[in-house]
């Protein structure tokens, strides 16, 4: 069995080696799964707002999606909220995506042999992909809040994926999943912050294993590409 390490935050991404899973449950990589389910053409993660605007000028039919401190970036088409993006508005388009935590993990994982993203909505697919790939080393990187503070939802996702890889049951999984309403996801239930953190986002991000694909990170001459790859799922 491969060597599975759980790392944390941007510093963890910088240390990640082997097959690296960059985990951001609330909301970057849950959102990217939903975007592919909406039939977007392609997702391009970037580290900075300036890169995002530059790429939009180069890519026809592209859409800017992203946040800083949770809020939609000025001049962007959408924030980082899966419940506020409609399929008819993004299908067939290239998404340029930048966030405070998730995409920062991608750009900082400079020693990774391979990068995929992870979230609860495709956790089992991530595990199945890793099992099929059989790497010697796996790094599960919990990006946390802003890449600088631990987040319970990302820790739970990493531990769940590790349990699937190592063949043991995470017995308190359901209990910890439910506790995210008050421990990690309370901001989604703050009536004064619904414009930034809609309650619907919480429920969309904590549905385990609803997508049978992983998102692989590759690079071409103009930057990173986050591509959907279907996974053969075991029952």
Compile the SSE list and pairings:
Blueprint: E1 3-8, H1 9-15, E2 18-23, H2 28-37, E3 42-45, H3 49-58, E4 62-68, E5 71-72, H4 87-90, E6 94-98, H5 102-108, E7 112-118, H6 123-133, E8 137-142, H7 152-166, H8 173-179, H9 199-205, E9 213-220, E10 223-230
Parallel strand pairs: 1-8, 2-7, 2-8, 3-6, 4-6
Antiparallel strand pairs: 4-5, 7-9, 9-10
Helix pairs in contact: 1-5, 6-7
Question: Brief description of this entry?
Answer:
The protein is of the alpha/beta class and 235 residues long. The protein is built from 9 helices and 10 strands.
Assembly type of the chains comes to: single chain
Instruction: State the secondary-structure class.
Output: alpha/beta
Strand content: 25-35%
Largest sheet: 6 strands, mixed
DSSP summary: helix tally: 9
Cα end-to-end separation: 21 Å
Helix content: 25-40%
> Based on CA inertia axes, which overall geometry fits?
globular
Low-pLDDT windows of residues:
none
Order of helices and strands: EHEHEHEEHEHEHEHHHEE
Rg calc = 16 Å
Strand element count: 10
Spatial sequence of strands, sheet with the most strands: 1-8-2-7-9-10
Average pLDDT reading: 97
